[in-house]
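Researcher: Please translate sequence to structure tokens.
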Amino acid sequence: MLLKHFMSFFAVFCCLSMGLQASNPEECSKELLLSYFPESFLNKTLKQFNVPEAEWPTINQELAAKDRDVIGIVEQKSSQLNPNPLKDPRERSKAIQIFRETLLEIFTSVMNKHNITDSEKIQAMLDDIQQQKAKRFAECMKEST
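Model: Translation complete:
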């Protein structure tokens, strides 16, 4: 399952140059597909998991601010390992694990600030966001062919 999530992110990075098209350009925008916590997907998840709507804007802002830190954190964690899983294709599963752990750490820290502390719920929320992203990416790829 982790591989599926990582590969969906990897596919987004690799395939955006193909010029994805959709009936609504925002549905397949580079910004939407490259964000780790897109506002539209995040809001859908927050609603589904009964997070008070008054919390949504702050949660969105905090995650958007941390979004740009993900790659740096993954690179920093990976550089401490020998071999570096980002530089050794044989260590791809470790790279996926670090990437996933980093997303979960960031998401958990923000959710905890908003009194959401159930780790299983937080994990399920992150999974939901990633599943929405993977589904949207697949739809965008289908529409581009």
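Researcher: Any highlights?
Model: The first helix runs from residue 2 to 15.
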